[in-house]
Amino acid sequence: MSKRKKRNSFHFLKRKFSKIMQKKLVLLFSLVVLAFAILIGRIIQINAMNGEKYTKVVLDQQQYDSRVIPFRRGDIVDRNGTKLATSERVYNVILDVKAMLEKDEYQEPTIKVLKDCFGIAEEDVEELVESSPESRYNILLKGVDYNTAKEFEAIDEDEEKHPNVKGIWLEEDYVRKYPYNSLASDVIGFSNADDVGTIGLEASYNAILNGVDGREYGYLEEGALLERTIKEAENGNTIVSTIDAELQKIVEKHILEFNEAYKDNAEKGNGSLNTAVIIADPQSGEILAQASYPNFDLNKPRDISAYYTEKELKKMKEEEKVEILNNLWKDFCVSDSYEPGSTAKPFTVAAGLETGKIRGNEVYTCGGSLVVAEDTEPINCHYTAGHGTQTIAQSIANSCNVAMMEMIKVIGAEDFYRYQSIFGFGAQTGIDLPGEAEGILQDPELVGPVDLATNSFGQNFNVTMEQMVAGMSALINGGNYYEPHVVKQIQDENGNVIETKESVLKKRVISEQTSTMLKQYMKTVMEGTGTGASAAVEGYDIGGKTGTAEKYPRNSGKHLLSFIGYAPQDDPEVLIYVVIDEPNTESQEDSSLVLNLARSIMEEAFPYMNISTIDGQPVVAPEQPDEPEEDQQEVEPQVENETETESQEEVSGEPSYEGEAVGDGSYEGESYDDGVYGDGTYEDGSGDMESGY
């Protein structure tokens, strides 16, 4: 039996299409291709001609959801971590009008919650509903505190009692706060609503304090869920300052007490035009406390009601208020320059010792005045009866102008002005605060004998407080000039240290031997009948120098009082500089005003700072002489046959200066550039010029 051949199931595929069928298939394929070509062409045409129109139609059917996530501006803290400036979280009230109007029963309860919880007026909401019924994002209120926000959240989550409250939500934001109000106002500064620092550290470290906003965004189609895209905000960094908040409080307390005591005294107004204090570490350039008065509340920087009555404020023009605010916000310690008076005398002596033109064993005779050039009037010493014979130590202790003028004759203009520049006068110190002034120096090529003579005791040139602190620190620390600074560290928001601001040693200005001699000279100021004796603090070995600068115009009765001091004597741990500009008293040259203020600060500050005492034993401060202040104190003249060296050793306990000058003021690896001097546009100063003492 033969086998049946198996039939292939796909045999039909091997059949050939007829010619008619082939033509039909080709035609069908061509029509499909043509249809696709027409469709693609039409899509291209629509997109090219009306793409934007149709895109808007699509987007109108979607809800775009996007919001800014604000960064948190970094804190400013003191050296111990106490917050001086911080950003507190607050909330903005947002209303989605379209969501509120979805159902009629939503509107009334939602408006009621806005009024009851946030104090938003009904008419304001109704006006918004009428003008923008389709709006989704409307800021109704800013700066809502945490407690109010929690109160609303409880309402929002209570579906049983408040099922129809719709369209309200809270947006996080931050507001700048200053926990201690006016404390260190000039140093800290403040920022505006846009997180832009205006003055102080807020301005100079603005970029470091600021962060970068984040964003939450996406599209929500009607009835659909959206997976949101979030870019988190980058918060700002924290500034750790060198300021000690407790020390700052001590300083500002005593400044305020002084100004309250002399308010409306000789005339209506504050106790002084300006009162300012700097306390610094002379071994590093760190500013530990810095304050000036009048000051202002950092939380209300434009409020001047503390200094003017409501009646006075109503009479003021806007331009007057702006000028008052600009003066109030200006940091006297950094931005104002003035004639230093006799606090500049140690610098004159230092220049003489460093150049070798003064040896330390010189003796001068003060007859109460000195003629420094032909055809000029005598320039008076503050003690017009004359101090008699004066060693260098005595001339510093008694603040003798005549002795200083005799010294500068020997030093000469070229070396004197070279060392003024070396000591940092006439140039910015580089402190990390905005608006620093340079001061004004005489041009050594143009200066006359009268201006040169008066420069020796701190008249006819201008300095800033920062310059005096930096320069005096170098005189007492062995000759090292440090750049003053108010920031120690920069940290991230979690407290991790990003950068440490090391002390910057800019140059060496004098030798250790000169520094030792200067300290011994300034110690005599605080002893016996020295001009600063009444500022001595029991238990502390203090050196210092007083100053009373007569302001322009001369003989107007306007004076600037100052005291600069340090402790302990051998290895200074602290430097204090106190300035009272135009005290509100009948006699502005009364140096006891600044000495009493300085003493009151030191008496409280030194124990707090644990400043080293004299062998652990208290020292009784000498009683103030019965004679009027330093302008009438006189040292008994030396016996005529006493040798110069013996006289010097008796007063200062220091042998004559025998070393060579080594302090050239050079920078690291570079020679010192004398720089540019001021134009010296002062009055000629002839006549009865008297310096501060």
Explain how this protein is built.
- The protein is 34% helix and 18% strand.
- The model is unreliable at 618-693 (pLDDT under 50).
- It has 693 residues and is α+β, with helices and mostly antiparallel strands.
- The longest helix is centred in the first third of the chain and has 42 residues, at 19-60.
Concise description?
This protein is of the alpha+beta class. 34% of the residues lie in helices and 18% in strands. Mean pLDDT is 84; it is low at 618-693.
Question: What is the fold-level CATH name, i.e. the topology of the domain at 339-609?
Answer: Beta-lactamase
CATH architecture of the domain at 339-609: 3-Layer(aba) Sandwich
Largest sheet: 7 strands, mixed
User: What radius of gyration results from the CA coordinates?
Assistant: 39 Å
Low-confidence segments, given as residue ranges, are: 618-693
Structural class: alpha+beta
Q: What is the highest CATH level, the class of the domain at 339-609? A: Alpha Beta
Can you give the mean pLDDT?
84
Please, what is the CATH homologous superfamily of the domain at 339-609?
DD-peptidase/beta-lactamase superfamily
Spatial shape: elongated
Count of alpha and pi helical runs: 21
Strand content: 15-25%
Total strands: 21
Helix content, binned percent: 25-40%
How many angstroms separate the termini? 147 Å
Region (Disordered): 618-693
Subcellular location: Membrane
Domain Penicillin-binding protein transpeptidase: 276-603
Keywords: Membrane
